[in-house]
Specification:
CATH superfamily of the largest domain: Umud Fragment, subunit A
CATH class of the largest domain: Mainly Beta
Distance between the termini: 45 Å
Number of domains: 2
Radius of gyration: 20 Å
Number of helices: 4
Structural class: alpha+beta
Number of strands: 8
CATH architecture of the largest domain: Ribbon
Strand order of the largest sheet: 2-1-3-4-8-5-6-7
CATH topology of the largest domain: Umud Fragment, subunit A
Strand content: 25-35%
Helix content: 10-25%
């Protein structure tokens, strides 16, 4: 912290405390309200300085400050592994959606071997019910596992995300629903496998 000004350090500490409490980063509005200022610029200049000095990483989304390394370390609970629960991905057909961390959840090492290669998604829709995946279920997704035909995957199809079974027939790949009310999905331009579903968490 010796390279930060007093105000930059205060902003950094607020971001750290917010991430620890909420599992995500504060918005500009929340930072303005915390420090009692009316202009985004007064916060943005400190954010820019923190980024230039290597204290934070940030993209252009409202909560775009990535989790600090200090926060990630604390989220590695001794009794389990903390995984990010991302925004819901529908199991009823691909739709445009922005992925973001809703919260964090601890899982056992039998569910995920580490916190870097896995994430969680909450299922919406009923297109995978014959595979035992229902609306409200949380699926565990391995980003590093190679998708093979027959796997249930999270896929990006022509700009939209969905959970389906990965199928290959006569050299052509497509996504299959596990509900006869839904049609198979063939990509017009893009089919990108984002991860393989390895486990399911159901809360009653």
């Amino acid at each position: 912290m010796e390279h930060l000004t007093e105000k930059q350090e205060a902003v950094f500490k607020f971001i750290e405390e917010y991430q620890l409490a909420e599992g995500k980063s504060p918005t500009l509005r929340e930072m303005r309200e915390n420090f009692g200022v009316s202009s985004d610029n007064s916060i943005l200049k400190h954010i820019k300085a923190l980024k230039e000095k290597g204290f934070i990483e940030k993209d252009d989304t409202p909560r775009g400050i990535k989790l600090l390394s200090s926060v990630r370390e604390r989220f590695e609970a001794p009794s389990g592994i903390r995984l990010p629960l991302l925004g819901s991905i529908p199991a009823g057909g691909p739709v445009l959606s922005e992925e973001y961390i809703d919260s964090w959840m601890s899982v056992g090492e039998d569910i995920a071997s580490n916190s870097k290669d896995y994430f969680l998604l909450k299922v919406t829709g009923d297109s995978m019910i014959d595979a035992g995946i229902f609306e409200g279920d949380i699926v565990v997704v391995d980003m590093k596992k190679e998708a093979r035909k027959g796997h249930i995957v999270v896929a990006l199809v022509d700009g939209g995300n969905t959970i389906k079974r990965f199928v290959e027939q006569k050299g052509k790949f497509y996504l299959k629903a596990e509900n006869p009310d839904y049609s198979d999905i063939y990509a017009e331009n893009e089919l990108e496998i984002q991860g393989v579903v390895t486990s399911l968490i159901r809360q009653y």
